[in-house]
From TrEMBL:
Protein name: Flagellar basal body rod protein FlgG
Keyword tRNA processing assigned: no
Gene name as annotated: flgG
Residue intervals of the Flagellar basal-body/hook protein C-terminal domain: 218-262
SUPFAM superfamilies: Flagellar hook protein flgE
Family membership noted in the UniProt record: Belongs to the flagella basal body rod proteins family.
Amino acid sequence: MLRSMYSGISGMKNFQVKLDVIGNNIANVNTYGFKKGRTTFKDLVSQQIAGASAPTAARGGVNPKQVGLGSQLSSIDTVHTQGSLQTTGRPLDLGISGDGFFKLMSGTDITYSRAGNFYLDQTGQIVNADGKFLLATGNAKITIPTDAKSFSVGADGTVSYINSTGVLTTAGQIELAKFPNNEGLEKAGNNEYRASTNSGAPLPSVPGGAGGAGTLVAGALEMSNVDLSEEFTEMIVAQRGFQANTRIITTSDEILQELVNLKR
């Protein structure tokens, strides 16, 4: 069989993965805190037809002759660039301006998120849309008494409220997690991430502190960093690449048909 046919098959598979990643990006264009994916390729093994030879006094050197056997998937990256902050005016909508992540806890399981749409449950604890607790320094839960007159969240993550007697009280300080390698985090679904062996252990930090995790913007939410114009352009490139590889397979098939017909 022709090598070009198998090269075309490898190209089709890779462009299909690229289209899958693009489709996921477009589907999450309005998902708070979503970070887009990016697909990269690399060439597959090359078959050696003839090796290189060094120059001599009588003859110059000769370059190697190799035929590539297709492409393969190199990486699927998560691009952790800052998304734009959309003002909502809601006090429990929190945006991060920086590289940090909110710490969420369910039972003993801790996950990390950039989505800052939080809520109060029946007991006054700050939770996300799935009921996971937002953690303060020391992995403590943040509770605002149900009889509090008002509350606010500062740029340094300090959650304050005015109690029933009119005294300003601090409920806790939101802690942000900073990772040595954000791109090494594993997506866990539900706008959440988990630490992996390549992300490194989270480094606790408070908003605006020396850890470099960033500051909080209350009354705002971070939008997805997906650029629709870029995604549509990449989709066209992937589609044309897929079509070109199918043409390679079709042409190879026609050549094989000609070989079969030689006996007739």
